[in-house]
Amino acid sequence: MLGTLTTFVSKMVTTTIPVATVKNGESFIPEDETSFRKVFPKLRQDLVEVCENCGFIESTKWFGKVLDYNVPHGKVQRGLLVVNTFKALTNNPTSEQMNSARILGWCGELLQTSSLIADDMMDSSPLRRGRPSWFTVDGVGMNAINDAFYLESCAYHLLKKYFGETEFYTKFVDAFHDITLKTIIGQNLDVLACQEISEERCKMANFFKIAEYKTGYYTFVLPIRLGAILAGLQDGKLLNHLESVGLQLGEIFQAQDDFLDVYCTITQTGKSGTDIAEGKCTWLICKAMEIANPEQREILMATYGKKDEESVQVVRTIFDEINLPYHFRHYHEELMDKIGTQIAAISGDHVQLKAMLNTLVKKMEIAKFLILVHV
Asked: How far apart are CA 212 and CA 244, in angstroms?
């Protein structure tokens, strides 16, 4: 039974839910992933032409490879959230409007990918999305730094090409700059937390800060903000409420990622778990330091962040002794209930919007199956 459930979960985690969610009379049909992905080849050609027009044949080939290897292979959750937010806030959008939303979503995916390349280098992560991280590919190495800059610049190139003459352009650029800065700060907090393992560093308040700035803003707030801008949303109070929901989704998303890193396999997640060896400030270590006894806390501080397998196993053993999966399950359920309450508080006039967010929550709840495997 356990093997069957694990296989089922593995498929669910890597699959976008393609059906409408119906809850309390609310319904929303999410953007079809296939429709979203069909836009990328044209955008790739737009970007390749920049080098071609400059006569840089070698650069054209190189950056074409950068785009093909890194950009289209993720679950495109952020790009889809841009489109779905726009769709939920717009009555009967035209095909042209939907195409604009998809282009905007891919701009977000380019920014996301640039961050992942840099993050993998900083963390020395060997795998990303089930394949070798870009900087580990033969012939790439430190060139990946420039490639990350390239992908970020591509997002701004496409923004100008497709939205430069619109009333939304400066708002889009401001949103990208604002969230990029916040994400950089979050990444710095994440790195600094690994440099000195201490009880002070492993407090839950620090996890909350990292989850908000490293994950929440660019994973949920930016896509929601972009979709709302494109839809012409003028209600600042509603937008703030939506972004508050986004930050809480970011918290649970980061906590889930922390859980998967320790308790799931490469086959299930597409990357190897390294958080314990790197000394990451994760939900797991912060909760462990809260509930472990003095002897266990002392052992954790002596072994957490050590790269040898023996130390990693000692940490894992203590995590099991204090039954962290059980505590995580209850944390997960409480926060998801809180998010559900916030969604329900949105004005009844925004039926599609509430249904869209409930669809998103349903996707997040897939992690419950993974949790149950280990409880």
From this structure: 10
Q: Which pLDDT score, from 0 to 100, does residue 16 have? A: 42
Alpha carbons 162 and 85: distance in angstroms, whole number: 19
Summarised one tens digit per residue, pLDDT across range 271-324 is 567 899 999 999 999 999 999 999 999 999 999 999 999 999 999 999 999 999
Cα-to-chain-centroid distance, residue 92: 29
Tokens of 240: 């703030």
28 forms beta bridges with 21
Q: What are the E-state strand segments in the chain?
A: 21-23, 26-28, 127-128, 131-132
Q: Are the C-beta atoms of 89 and 353 separated by less than 8 Å? A: yes
pLDDT of residue 147 exceeding 50, the answer is yes
* Mean pLDDT, residues 131-153 taken together: 97
**pLDDT bucket at 156, cuts 50 / 70 / 90:** very high
Tell me which amino acid residue 101 is.
A
- Per-residue 3-state assignment (H helix, E strand, C coil) for 193-262: HHHCCCCCCCCHHHHHHHHHHHHHHHHHHHHHHHHHHHCCCCCHHHHHHHHHHHHHHHHHHHHHHHHHHH
CA atoms of 275 and 319, how far apart (whole Å): 13
Alpha-carbon span 130 to 185, nearest angstrom: 27
Cα 30 to the center of its chain, rounded Å: 18
pTM of the model: 0.89
8 A C-beta contact, residue 322 and residue 288: yes
Look at phi and psi of residue 304 and say left if phi exceeds 0, alpha if psi is from -120 to 50, else beta.
Answer: beta
- pLDDT bin (cut points 50, 70, 90) of residue 12 is very low
pLDDT at 271: 53
Model pLDDT for residues 171-189, shown as the tens digit of each residue: 999 999 999 999 999 999 9
- Reduced DSSP (H G I as helix, E B as strand, rest coil) percent helix, strand, coil of the chain, to 5: 75, 5, 25
SS3 374: helix
- Structure tokens belonging to residue 214: 């490293």
8 Å CB contact between 166 and 160 = no
Cβ pair 278, 123 in contact under 8 A: yes
Coil vs helix vs strand at 365: coil
